[in-house]
Every structure is written in C-alpha cells, then in structure tokens.
Design goal:
Helices cover 24% and strands 21% of the residues. It is α+β, with helices and mostly antiparallel strands and 378 residues long. It has 2 domains: 158 residues, no CATH class; 186 residues, no CATH class. Strands 10, 12, 13, 14, 15, 16 and 17 form a 7-stranded mixed β-sheet that branches. A 5-stranded antiparallel β-sheet has the order 2-1-3-4-5, with no helix packed on it. A hairpin with a 6-residue loop joins strand 15 and strand 16. The radius of gyration is 23 Å and the shape is globular. The N and C termini lie far apart (71 Å).
Amino acid sequence: MTIAKDSSTDEIIHGNDLRGMDDFYIKTTSFECPYEPCKIKATPCSFTMKHVNQSYFRYGDKHKDGCGIHDPRYKNNHTSNDERKHNSPPAPVISLLKIDVKPRGGVKNARSSKNENHKDEKKANEHPVSSSSIKPVVDYYINNSNHNEQLSIPPYGTRSYKDTFQLIFYKNNIRYYKPAIYYGVVQSNIRLHEDSDKHCITFLARDKKTQKPFTLEIDVSDWNKSQKDVFWKEYEKQRKEADRYYKGLKDKRNAKKYLTVFFFGMPDENDKFLFKTNHFKLVYVAFLGKFESSYNDSNYYIENDLSVSSLNEQPISLSDIDHKNHEYNIETSLDFSSPLPEPEPEPIKSSLKENTETVEMKSKVWGRLKKIITFFKK
C-alpha cells in the first residue's frame, strides 16, 4: 500500500483511494512524502478508470534522512511489496480521522477543505497528521505494536488506537454498541454483485447454535461510478487471492493469511449481528498475514450483565463485564436452512487448540484403560 500527503491540506492520502477521487483534484494537487524531514515529490499513478491496476503513489527520488522509510522497525513488517516497488514510506501515526468530509466527485475541493479544517489554528496544531480515509490508519495499526497513540474521530471524541480498533468475535450474549473501526476475517467464497447498491459481507464469527454470522451492510447508493468500480474490483482481487490460497491448503485451520475487512461503522440497534457503513473511504479490504492485535473490551457488553438502558447512565468499566474466555467459532458447516455458503473455519486460538489436543489425549488414554479392564474381567 502506498501513501502521500496533500501539501495544501496536510492530509494523508492513501494510494488506493486515488481512483475514487476527482481527476481535477488529483491533477492540480501537489503530493509529497508525509514525513516532515523528507517531503520529496509523490506522483499519483493508475488513477483513471481505464487503468487495470490499482491506483498508487510512486516516489522517484531517494527519501531523505529522518524519513520513516529508513526506520528499521518497519523493515520486515510490511505484508505487501508495494511499498518497496513504488518506494513508498510506511504510514505515519494518524491523529485525526475526518469522517465528515462531504465528497465533491469523491473528495472535497482542496482549498475549501483547508479553510474549513484549519479555522482554528490552535486546534489544527493538536492534530498534525490527519486523513479522511481509514486505510493509512489501518496500515499504521497492523504494522506497529504501539497502539497507545491517540486518534481523534469527530464527533465521537478521542481514544487510543487500542480502544478504537475492535475485533469482531462471537461470545454468548455479546452486544457491540459503539461506533469504532471494526475488523474481522470474512468468507472468501461469497461474491459481491458489481451493480448492487448494497453489499453484504459475511464474517466468520457467528453464533455457535444458530450459525447466524455477523455481517456488514455497505450502502453504496450515494457513491459515484468510479468509487463503486474501485471498491468492487479491489474486493474481488483480494477475495480471489484468498480463495486460491485457502483451496491450496490441506487444512484451512493452518492458514497463515486471512481475508480481512476493516471499516468504521455502527452496530445496528435492532440486529446485534449487523453492522452498517456507507462511506467509500471508511472500508478497507485486505488479504493479510497475522499482525499484533490489541485486546479491546470497550466497544461491547454482555447483555446478561448490563442492560442497554444503563449504558446511557454510566460508562462501561472493566468490572461491569465478564471478559473471560473469548470464544471463537470454528464450526465447519452451516445449518441446512441457511442460504449462506459453507463458512471457512476461523483461526484457532493457540489456547483453544491446546485444550482440544488435551481432551483428545485423555480420551485415548481412557480407551486403553477400558480395554485393559475388560481383559482382566474375562
């Protein structure tokens, strides 16, 4: 993945978002390396509809000393070769995610955006690195172990990366209730319809008894043609790559990479298994290897322990919720009444795998003892 900074607004732009933006904005904007000591020129590439490859930024010059590309911490962290091929630096820590940017052909006018977002100079200085896309935010999260950095998402306040990112998993009576950057492994054997105004993505996490999965509904009815095309093509590209990978495995539970969807969205008020979003820049699909994920319990509660009404009266604290024994559904088949394809097994947590192996071992030992007892009874 590649990134650059809009020199007129100081906003971090992700290379994948270029094709969904206004051509005039791209051609009249100067992009540069986002690291202050560097600032070498970044060239937007493959951003028109006629291009087959994904849009990206390319850096022709050598990055200067002090640029993040020279930081040894990022040397082996990247899951893609795009950074090296296009000479792109790693994503810096984003401290402001602007989700209220109204698109004009995919993006706000650069000058008006600068005026609106920098009315209060003091406030702007509190957020030196900003973006209207979650992609550079996600890139930083998956490539860094420090998740204590602060991220402001107006009008939802400021929280740490750790508390902002929420893995979607199933646990009895779990109820997600906060807007957050949710993410999880999704099924790679479900295609999306290119011309649909709504896409439904199915997560592997699901109720063990009913087999009802968590789903994400993406309303794309207000997206322009370019944005719809970009999202669908990128999803299909990542989905096909994941599907080929899974089909080549003898046991899918041994997978090292997963089709993962990140999105900033809201849990549905009526259906606790449904999430919703409608922002082009707030959905990110990637076929990723394992990365360090922070434990987070701040975006959900257990319905038996805490009523919905009490959430409006008092904040959730660690003592309010039972956080023990996170359960990951690893069922390999669906109920026959379900219209969904057969789900792929979720990654098995090491502790769960060890417990399963222990039970199997005890079962074998008991079987041998029964044979010995039967022999001596004869």
